[in-house]
């Protein structure tokens, strides 16, 4: 069995889907979490891309969260039943990424990490959310499994994490998208990750 | 054999890597190209292009398409770790290209901005990315980003061609990178297509 070391910050963010995969698979891994202020400045130069997360698999290193999450998804049978399903997972996740890029400015202001006028940003945010969550619901309806493909995948883990984050920053979210929250709860209540989710602590992001 | 239909605009852009894969594999496909203005957006589930029909199935998102076709046509890595490395390099490249594009947009007069102010950051970003790419090429020793040619090389080659089209200093600054691009574009299985496809700047 290879030695796995996941390097990131002490947030859910871009690394939590990978953590969920490890817990789902019952696979031991080193869950390294660098303090942004105290440790990251010294660690950053050791990152070839200057960014986190990255994953060590014995002597090999994978940068970029989607690359490492997809790798782990494939390794642990969480990547769809065939190449077409894998492609659908990739496609939905990439579309989700575009969505998060678009709502980033609004969420950032809401988290008080940047300046801006929430009222001005709100309509675009609402419209973007509506478009994406309507699309996601249509994909869930199409799959009929309760997940985005025929069985649970790394894509569901990633989407569930995003939905949790949305709920943490948008108090109206559950009221507007109850079926989406149900989907997230369904993913989180999977026996193989339920316990980890309950114990991991409430990180906002 | 499935029926393939690729839907995009009449650009190289996000769809050219997929076109290269089809030509490399000698696989027939419908190469549908919509005009930029008033294109039938409602045909796309995400409102964006490209997308790929494979018989009755549809794949949206260019990287998902490229990765899928790469797998199907033997243009992915030798194992899952190599696939992860290709994915990783392409994702890092994506971040770079976004930044470079905003500079190019101003250069092309498609966006407002002060070129002189933007240039130093653009130069720095290019240097960082192309130094990184060169280090990955040096590491793999095959002349490609993985142990053999992959969809990732097609994507990067297209980007390097675009860079040369918008930055007249590029070839001088990054000769080995241009060599890499030419090496890919002169592969026997795609050489003829690349030579006859026409000079789309982007």
UniProtKB/TrEMBL annotation, chain A:
GO biological process: glutathione metabolic process
All copies of domain GST C-terminal, residue ranges: 82-205
Gene3D superfamilies: 1.20.1050.10, Glutaredoxin (3.40.30.10)
Domain GST N-terminal per the UniProt entry, residue ranges: 2-80
One Pfam family here: GST_C_3
Matching SUPFAM superfamilies: GST C-terminal domain-like (SSF47616), Thioredoxin-like (SSF52833)
Single Gene Ontology MF annotation: glutathione transferase activity
InterPro entries assigned to the protein according to its UniProt record, in alphabetical order: Glutathione-S-Trfase_C-like, Glutathione-S-Trfase_C_sf, Glutathione_S-Trfase, Glutathione_S-Trfase_N, GST_C, GST_superfamily, Thioredoxin-like_sf
Signal peptide start-end: none
PANTHER family in alphabetical order: GLUTATHIONE S-TRANSFERASE (PTHR11571), GST C-TERMINAL DOMAIN-CONTAINING PROTEIN-RELATED (PTHR11571:SF256)
Stated name of the protein: Glutathione S-transferase
Origin species: Panagrolaimus davidi
Lineage start: Eukaryota, Metazoa, Ecdysozoa, Nematoda, Chromadorea
TrEMBL record, chain B:
Pfam families found in the cross-reference section: GST_C_3, GST_N
EC class name: transferase
GO molecular function terms noted in the UniProt entry: glutathione transferase activity
EC number of this enzyme: 2.5.1.18
Known catalytic reactions: RX + glutathione = an S-substituted glutathione + a halide anion + H(+)
Superkingdom of source: Eukaryota
Location of the GST N-terminal domain: 2-77
A single Gene Ontology CC term: cytoplasm
InterPro entries attached to this UniProt entry: Glutathione-S-Trfase_C-like, Glutathione-S-Trfase_C_sf, Glutathione_S-Trfase, Glutathione_S-Trfase_N, GST_C, GST_superfamily, Thioredoxin-like_sf
One GO term of the biological process aspect: glutathione metabolic process
PROSITE patterns per record: GST_CTER, GST_NTER
Keywords for the protein's UniProt record, in alphabetical order: Transferase
Domain GST C-terminal: 79-202
Family: Belongs to the GST superfamily. Sigma family.
The protein's name in its UniProt record: glutathione transferase
